């Protein structure tokens, strides 16, 4: 399930990947980069490309744009499922971005310094697949387009970074993508400030995103965009596909706010492209203007017609999320003058786009040369940056983790967590993060660093404000920027409810975000039931690809961080106590990776009279109860279930050694819902927990009233024995 | 656990409650109401009250405001826990609201036509408790203030409507309160449009709210406020406590957007009160201006000093969430010239506030008279309105529920749900709701009604736009406006992740919202893993006070609606299929209230060879497998677990009759996480489910690839038998 090597995605290591591509460079016409750069800033409709200048007239661009439209139409039609409307409307901006503006290498989708593109309106993914196909990405060949939305295809129903190289993040749930884009742009700004030198700009890319009306309505988008404005992410350029249509009809029925004014209020530069359907020059000059504004992110509102070209369905919700139908496909072919078979890319369009493969290789090669020079001049910085780019963990990093003995002073696991965060900050170059306005409660400040802010972007403490959902999605973006980033974020455990959609995308998209979730139970006391998690442990134990840790003391906290850092493809949630806990004999950093293990035992032959189980702050209670029962002559085993997921991955033999099936006298205690504990306590055991909401009172009083005491465990043990 | 009578909160019935208060009216100086009304609009600092005009000079107001401040300081100090900063800063606006502006009856906190107040910044609840105390509410007496944040007190750490009469909704999780306030204001606008007559304005109240920087940062607040602007909720007046401090320090570090401009963009009227610390006249005239703007909600930005009066802690985060400490309390007493003992309310302040009890009784009595006239003139409307006010369900409403037989055409439960919604819309006057831009997918439109919009607020289909979180919280507000409201809201089941914090508050605050959640599994097919719920059933089964229904067909869908409508204090979530399902022999509307029940069985003597269990779309698969196995001579029972919570509430005898402990051969099938099924299948059984993320492909293909088939059930059954 995890190993230290799993954290290194070799395919993402620049130096290894770029080497085999070098031979491509020899095919390149030399001036591509500088020409491309000039082109970015051009407002002329005529786009000059080295191989075939004659092919860049505006009719070819129309043809390219229509190719994108029909690839989307045809794929949705063949699948009889999908969303043709957005690709048809956004094809022009998509074309300008991928053909004229963006810098990328189709042969290495993971090239570090590439421009990032996020389709926040992920349902329109056929736009992105069509663009990747035209640009020459191996991941989206014609047969992949024909397999749109089919079992195990590279072209699933929404963009999934883990399925399709060239897709940066996983979108579809609205608003997530633009927040990811904020994270990607933050990562660029941070790395640029940290590593660029006056004589060598080694980090330098833009982040582009397309979002629709749906994304704009979602609160998460406002949270993330407010932060983007606050941070002055000048290299974030977002296109707002303003098509006036959402699933329920005209946006008039639910969305009449002034989006431009709102974004200005959020500190963005705002541009309006009135003709997004074929105003290529307008789109180009908007991008030029956006790039010229360096201290603010830019929103380019592009007014488009959803389903552009469909004579009977354009500008209606019916084109949003269903195939056009054979008849309307024909009518659209007629209307746009498209005589070709489904999935056909006309030869001149193909040729026009073909330059991106050699040019991309050239871009990467040029950057590699630059990096080699950088490495010579600045070996230390280069080593740090390389670690972030490749995800390779520095040798011996684990030694930085603090260790504890039973004699160490009792402490809250949130404080012990802070010791770990500070230790890791010193050894992991890509470690950064912060809290949703609870840094002093979550104990998440790294003492060796200042605040990441507009004018101090090289720092690593991120101040997210009270924006949990945006925070989670921004961290997903950071994690997906480069394999060596290990972002963490924090709030009270109960407020994972605010960011659950982002946490789920961490899990699905394999973003190794670390969620530092303090105040993990009724143990927080007086704030009461609105602040006391009950069902949250169970709710994450049921979620795929998440490590839900509830460490009991210092060593378990360090052990949880160790597993979290080692597993870059699985997010970790640490539920941490507000209240002080003793360091228990029998816990260890290493044992955490088993998920469940024996903490203490006075039985022999794997035949205890009784097994007591607990997690986090209740492991102490279980241990106390065991002491009592042992005094009475019982052979009692105490088991910590610090991570159910890791335990589930152990062998049947190991599990039998921890929970022998012959021992049915079992009691668990955890200050949360008992839901799911039946698995461990079995039909004859007893699960002590909380199957109601909490209460406002001092923590000790609630524990007592709710029956979470050693006495209750002893009584339950006697009842089940 | 539920009964039809539980849905009627008798204490909330206006007519019964108002009667015993009538004798108070005789003590009233007659002109109180008209005087009060004039006062609302007065910008003079001098507030005249009938009993003691001389007590209304500004020094008395200062004294009243300081009383509020010190009640908060003293309660937090005694508890050594809580948030004194906000009450100290917001005491002036609190005073003006409760003493001069708001119309309420302390002796009947549930009087229907009262102005509503929501403290969205719920951590500052001592402000609200102090105001309720001064205003004469029984629920907050001096001894209650002294029990602040203690076990079973009426003054918990955050405002809880179910603990403290006078508190409208449950706040604390930031942003929820302002969204609840939008729901309360929507409810008023809807009822006023529906029931007011040119000669009788029977519904007429304002909704006030105080929100802080934290609420402003939360995405949910932007969602709800965008809708409030869209709907033109002119009687919603929100105070933004602009104090520049959040927990992590100055808001400068994370929150530099232009809030006023954002709210203007959202369609609000915005006013800035520059001196919130003692600018009473500014506050008064802002409220006057806000009331004059009838087509827009108003945001009054009130610049205050957090912890006003504390010489060493004011204007710092240290006063936000901790007791001042004895020394600083003394210093603050010195500074504000407060010679009194803790919890003391000076006699003149007490006397000044004492008029609210008789005046409130007068207000209610006057309204009751008005209602009696209304009832005479408009008996039908009055009966409807009364049903909404009292929560009494119309006799025989259950007969409206559709019923089905195995011969009824197979259909998706989302469509069957729509039949129920339309049936209930006809018989339940307080039934209203809508979808987050998925009405045509969730099948939630009520055909007999139009859209609730700015200019058609009497209609009942609510268009929430893509704002799931705001939608949930707005529905909580509607539910808490009047006991007869039954709001429903809808999106895809997976997007409960976006609104989970609001659903949790439904559960905690006992808001009987109905969550219509369609596309409930991999059965939605091509949209893929971002859209396919896996862990969601388990995550809600673990949440207290929620009914998590997964109906299998028409009768179970109707049965789920029946339980949902009958249980106003428990929210219900209905997980509904996108795909068609047959109507199974053996299901019934009535059986649903048992939560788990036998659908079919060919055994005798409660001794089947095997028990197959399922929910929703997989009950059909379990039934098919049972047929196969019966053909092979097995005695097989099929059990539907449509609601685990309802099953858990059944007697041990009933449970033994469904799942006899002697039968350990048990197989469950559900297209979701197997987490929690161990409880029913036991250690010797087998749970078939999905413990990974879904996939993008046609639904049938995914079911087959994931092993959710009758063949797999048969094979598992043979393995466990």
From TrEMBL, chains A, B:
Active site: 468
Catalytic reactions of this protein: D-sedoheptulose 7-phosphate + D-glyceraldehyde 3-phosphate = aldehydo-D-ribose 5-phosphate + D-xylulose 5-phosphate
Subunit organization: Homodimer.
Annotated binding of Mg(2+), by residue: 213, 243, 245
Keyword terms: Magnesium, Metal-binding, Thiamine pyrophosphate, Transferase
List of residues binding thiamine diphosphate: 123, 172-174, 214, 243, 320, 495
Transketolase-like pyrimidine-binding domain segment(s): 411-583
EC number: 2.2.1.1
Gene3D superfamilies on file: 3.40.50.920, 3.40.50.970
Cellular component terms (Gene Ontology): chloroplast; cytosol
Swiss-Prot/TrEMBL cofactor(s): thiamine diphosphate; Mg(2+); Co(2+)
Site features described as Important for catalytic activity, chain residue numbers: 83, 320
InterPro entries documented for this protein: THDP-binding (IPR029061), Transketo_C/PFOR_II (IPR009014), Transketolase-like_C_2 (IPR055152), Transketolase-like_Pyr-bd (IPR005475), Transketolase_bac-like (IPR005478), Transketolase_BS (IPR020826), Transketolase_CS (IPR049557), Transketolase_fam (IPR033247)
Pfam families, alphabetized: Transket_pyr, Transketolase_C_1, Transketolase_N
Protein name: transketolase
């Amino acid at each position: 399930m995890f190993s230290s090597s799993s954290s290194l995605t070799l395919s993402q290591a620049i130096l290894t990947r770029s080497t085999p591509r070098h031979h491509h460079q020899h095919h390149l016409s030399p001036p591509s980069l500088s020409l491309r750069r000039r082109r970015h800033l051009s407002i002329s409709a005529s786009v000059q490309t080295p191989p075939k200048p004659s092919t860049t007239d505006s009719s070819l661009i129309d043809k390219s744009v229509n190719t994108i439209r029909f690839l989307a139409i045809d794929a949705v039609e063949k699948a009889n499922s999908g969303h043709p409307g957005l690709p048809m409307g956004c094809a022009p901006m998509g074309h300008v971005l991928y053909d004229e503006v963006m810098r990328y290498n189709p042969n290495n989708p993971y090239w570090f310094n590439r421009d990032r593109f996020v389709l926040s309106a992920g349902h329109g993914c056929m736009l992105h697949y069509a663009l990747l196909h035209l640009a020459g990405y191996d991941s989206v060949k014609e047969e992949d387009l024909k397999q749109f939305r089919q079992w195990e295809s590279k072209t699933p129903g929404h963009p999934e970074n883990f399925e399709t190289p060239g897709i940066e993040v996983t979108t579809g749930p609205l608003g997530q993508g633009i927040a990811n884009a904020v994270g990607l742009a933050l990562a660029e700004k941070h790395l640029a400030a940290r590593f660029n030198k006056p004589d060598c700009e080694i980090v330098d890319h833009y982040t582009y995103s397309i979002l629709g009306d749906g994304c704009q309505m979602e609160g998460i988008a406002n949270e993330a965009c407010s932060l983007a404005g606050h941070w002055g992410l000048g290299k974030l350029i977002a296109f707002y596909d303003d098509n006036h249509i959402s699933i329920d009809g005209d946006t008039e029925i639910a969305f009449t706010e002034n989006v431009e004014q709102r974004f200005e209020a959020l500190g963005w530069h705002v541009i309006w492209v009135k003709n997004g359907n074929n105003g290529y020059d307008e789109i180009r000059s908007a991008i030029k203007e956006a790039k010229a504004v360096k201290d603010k992110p830019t929103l380019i509102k592009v007014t488009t017609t959803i389903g552009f070209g469909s004579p009977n369905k354009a500008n209606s919700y019916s084109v949003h999320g269903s195939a056009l139908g054979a008849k309307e496909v024909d009518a659209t072919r007629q209307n746009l003058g498209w005589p070709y078979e489904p999935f056909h890319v006309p030869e001149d369009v193909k040729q026009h786009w073909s330059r991106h493969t050699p040019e991309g290789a050239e871009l990467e090669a040029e950057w590699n040369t630059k990096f080699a020079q950088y490495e010579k001049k600045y070996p230390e910085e280069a080593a740090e940056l390389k670690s972030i780019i490749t995800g390779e963990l520095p040798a011996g990093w684990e030694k930085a983790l603090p260790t504890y003995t039973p004699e160490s002073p009792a402490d809250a696991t949130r404080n012990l967590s802070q010791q770990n965060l500070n230790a890791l900050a010193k050894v992991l170059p890509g470690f950064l993060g912060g809290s949703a306005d609870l840094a002093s409660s979550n104990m998440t400040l790294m003492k060796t660093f200042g605040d990441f802010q507009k004018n101090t972007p090289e720092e690593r403490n991120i101040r997210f404000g009270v924006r949990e959902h945006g925070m989670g999605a921004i961290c997903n973006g950071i994690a997906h920027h480069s394999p060596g980033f290990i972002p963490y974020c924090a709030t009270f455990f109960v407020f994972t409810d605010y960011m659950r959609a982002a946490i789920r995308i961490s899990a699905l998209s394999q973003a190794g975000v670390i969620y530092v979730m303090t105040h993990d139970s009724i143990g927080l006391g007086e704030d009461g039931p609105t602040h006391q998690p009950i069902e949250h442990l169970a709710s994450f134990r049921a979620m795929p690809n998440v490590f839900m840790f509830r460490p009991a003391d210092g060593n378990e906290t360090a052990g949880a961080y160790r597993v979290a850092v080692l597993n870059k493809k699985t997010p970790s949630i640490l539920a941490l106590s507000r209240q002080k806990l003793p360091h228990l004999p029998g816990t260890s950093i290493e044992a955490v990776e088993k998920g469940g293990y024996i903490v203490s035992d006075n039985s022999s032959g794997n035949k205890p009279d009784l097994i007591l189980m607990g997690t986090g702050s209740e492991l102490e209670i279980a241990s106390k109860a065991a002491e009592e029962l042992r005094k009475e002559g019982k052979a009692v085993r105490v088991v910590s279930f610090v991570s159910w997921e890791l335990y589930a991955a152990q062998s049947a033999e190991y599990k039998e050694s921890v929970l022998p099936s012959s021992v049915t006298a079992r009691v668990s205690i955890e200050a949360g819902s008992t839901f799911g504990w039946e698995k461990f306590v079995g039909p004859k055991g007893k699960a002590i927990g909380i199957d109601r909401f909490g209460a406002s009172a001092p923590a000790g009083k609630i524990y007592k009233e709710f029956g979470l005491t050693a006495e209750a465990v002893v009584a339950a043990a006697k009842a089940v024995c």
